[in-house]
Fold NADPH-dependent 2,4-dienoyl-CoA reductase, sulfur reductase.
Amino acid sequence: KNIVIVGGVAGGATAAARLRRLNEHDSITMFERGEHISFANCGLPYYIGGTIASRDKLLLQSPKGMKDRFGIDVKVRTEVTAIDRAGKKVRVKQLDTGEEAEYPYDVLILSPGAKPIVPEIPGLSEAEAVFTLRNIPDTDRIHAWINEHKPNHAAIIGGGFIGVEMAETLRHRGLEVTMVERNEQVLGPLDPEMAKPVERHMRLKGVDLVLGASVVAIEDRGKTLRLSSGQVLRTDMLLLAIGVTPESGLAREAGLELGVRGAIRVNERLQTSDPSIYAVGDAIEVKDRTLGFETVVPLAWGANRQGRLVADVIQGRKASYSGAYGTAIVKAFDLTAAVTGVNEKTLNKLGVPYEAIHIHPASHAGYYPGAAPLSLKLLFDKASGAIYGAQAVGQDGADKRIDVISTAMRGGMTAAELADLELAYAPPYSSAKDPVNMAGYVAS
Ligand code: FAD
């Protein structure tokens, strides 16, 4: 078979490597518009902040490595500009030379990702120091600009995961930071009361947090921001972190079916409305595993899992992708916030009856030094006990509690059965009754 892949980072590179492991003979060609393949998107904020000192550490694989190790042809700086479905070929453009060519395919995999949303704000196009963060060139730009201009102040628009990570990063670099978030809370996947400790902590760490306000005008070539609250903000640089939108333009032009938020619609075999074309990663619509509605989950687990599964499907293995809980985690200075499943806001919006419990245990045995309070919220159906979701915020141990509950959800356990989980315990790590067990006791 002749397999062509669009996008060479999380989903694309994973699919390519797995395809080769399953079949030595197929021709595999991967096109990547950018200069780099297989880079660590998730590490970018930590490189800008200096926690990851070496830029090379972000580059996980090179085109030469893919060729030598896997026999995969990688064409970087090469954009796929059109799909000819009837003729089963893609049109590509080499971005440095402008040269165009056509490549035939038997099977096409799309993993084009999602791009940062750029809002329409008057004055934005005249602003000088405006940044978004998606890839290595974006990272280099931010890094170089800060080094050269030594700004005193940064404004971050958007209090989502990347915004919160960048607030910490920029504070690390010694900048004053103002975060402007349109909603009344940061970190939308959390419920408001769970976001509160994060907001308090960010303020404690010197982030000027403006909630419930948006930037309505940008003046002075980006140095002055006018907010909907009437507030006027002076800044040296502006980071837009208001979310991402699926890069589904190529699929749309090719007439492939799209779903929510313009994401590429796929079936359980990750096949688009054209059976020869598959799609994975941030660009696709997925099923919410908890309640079954269609949604997008632009996170790395899905891209990696789907990249592997799509290769299995293409090589004739029994494989299917059945949806996402949206399990996610973020470090906000010394706090960790983690979430799985749906939150209370979503349950209310959908009119789903639920029970919510909050517990505030210690991260490990209180008598052993270093125990920190943990806030854990569990949402479940009172009648059936089905777990809808959980959220955890604390300095320590939020990650494993959410991972355990996500695993319990995947295994179909009820809220009361969380009390039955036999979890590893010694005083430095937990309590004989782990916070997850306690949630189970409270729920039963
Ligand atoms: P990408 O990895 O974005 O790859 C898509 C590639 O396709 C791009 O390089 C693009 O240039 C290329 N492309 C698009 N169109 C074309 C075309 N027509 N021709 C050729 N090439 C094309 N997720 C987590 O779970 N945890 C985290 O902590 C986390 N942190 C993140 C931090 C940052 C700053 C960013 C930007 C993302 C983060 N993510 C995180 C999200 C995670 O990186 C994505 O979910 C994942 O990379 C998606 O994989 P993908 O293959 O769908 O898209």
